[in-house]
Amino acid sequence: ASLTCAHLLRALLGAFSLLFQLFSPRRPAMSGKKLPAVSNPLLLLSATQLAKKIRRKEVSSVEVVQAYIDRIQEVNPLVNAVVKDRFDAALQEAAQVDKLIEEETGGEEVLEDRLPLLGVPLSVKESYCLQGMPNTTGVVSRRGIVATVDAPPLVQLKRAGAIPLGVTNTPELCMWWETHNHLYGITNNPYDLERMVGGSSGGEGSILGAAGSVIGVGSDIGGSIRMPCFFNGVFGHKTTPGVITCENQYPPASGRDKEYLSLGPMCRYSEDLLPMLKIMAEPNTHMLSLNTKVDLKKLRFFTVPDDGGSPSTYPVSRELVEIQSKVVERLEADLGVKVQEVRFPELHYGFRIWDTYLGLSDDEGKPPKPFAQLMGEPGRPAWPLWELLKWMVGKSDHTIPAIVMGLHDMLRVFKPSPYIIKQKEKLQRDVEELLGTDGVFLYPSHPRVAPKHHHTLFRPTDFAYTAIINTLGLPATQCPLGLGKEGLPLGVQVVAGKLQDHLTLEVALYLEKTFGGWRDPGAN
Ligand SMILES: *[C@@H]1O[C@H](CO)[C@@H](O)[C@H](O)[C@H]1NC(C)=O
Predict the structure, then answer these.
(1) Would 168 be classed as within a structural domain?
(2) What total number of domains does the chain contain?
(3) How far apart are CA 368 and CA 361, in angstroms?
(4) Pocket of ligand 1, beta carbon within 6 A
(5) Which CA distances in Å does 484 have to 314, 487, 488, 521?
(6) What is the CATH classification number for the domain harbouring 217?
(7) Is pLDDT of 3 > 50?
(8) Residue 395 CA, ligand 1 centroid: distance in Å
(9) Contact 134, 84 (CB under 8 A)
(10) Could you tell me the pTM of the whole model?
(11) 1, 182, 408, 421: which is deepest, by most CB within 10 A?
């Protein structure tokens, strides 16, 4: 094969990762340190159950919010996931909630209907604007910029009674899958502090996995919800694109981003996915069939074991192959369904398809915003080659993936390959035909469990496993499946046809029941 963008990107990152080992300053050692086990039972209830208990005055919102504040204060020095909190404001809001419940005369049903998440704490990805919280997405030159309004899904979640406790870390400009930037530093995996949390909703994944949060909000253009949920052992749903509005995120969507970018809920307990999605999708909830009862026995199930050995990804690890087979076995035994194995040869080009489509111009012919421009804002565009030189002597404000992204943009002068476009179109047709409105397939969320910090640089395009689903515009739920031999979370993504989000959410409920869902990283 000729030299492609993927190969170039990979070679560049490979070389830089080597340099990185030489030049990176030593981090404070996390080796030997471990998260404490959860001691407060309130932290082990879903948001749905917490809201019910709060409504019934079995527990106060202040108690619940305080329990989460205590847990964040206990774990955040270890994981560095929450980058700015609003604990005082949250406690005041919780006190108001308790007062409101005291005064409500309409009974529990009225509250449930109007304010389904009343009094429940929420965490939010920093790139998602939350009024009064930083609006930086990890860019040093944006230090001090504060969000003036809430992103629309946050407006809805607050209106439903949820109480945000703070915002969580992302990679610089959300354009990488390790959560690290020079404004807030690096975020650690609660199951092994020397490992990465994934990205870009990495702070969310980490704080949820660490039991410092029960529900959170993420966004996903190449796996940014599903990867951190996979690496940190929690549930995450990438909604069908176009349902949840993506205004008031930073950086704003440009080019064709909106076709591939999806927002969605991230949570520790699968029963919270559906109510959260209903709220976040307002006023477009009617586009989805979220009130339709799903009978799993009537679905058609498929399993796609891997991408057919693409040169841009690592082979799926043995324990992940095995757990996906286990899911197939259980589905067949429990539901009496037949799970058919299918392979799509075009998945081989997963990364190149995603990269090609993200680089295309929008319907009006406007190309995506150059990355170097985003890196420099609110000042002048950054100059990636110069930043690279500065980085080598430890003087750049930018992370190496961001600098390489800036350089990678320069390669976009090449015209998209007609061969790749044809592969994508065929894949789209075949997948849609297979799934229809009653089919789901299992696909690895990632080829292996959480790598050590910075090791993404050695395998920069492994995220093709999640990214291809964005290009296809399909909904997908990442589901945790217990811990592997190194004590790290396993998982799988469940994918359905466009707008069939209710199917994957139902499968998530089943998988949690069958495989036990989230595990306390501090246990054992
Ligand atoms: C966040 O910052 C960007 C660019 O600096 C700005 O355009 C946007 O309005 C800000 N968002 C909010 C909600 O303040």
Answers:
(1) yes
(2) 1
(3) 6
(4) 129, 135, 145, 147-149, 248, 250, 378
(5) 18, 5, 5, 12
(6) 3.90.1300.10
(7) no
(8) 27
(9) yes
(10) 0.95
(11) 408
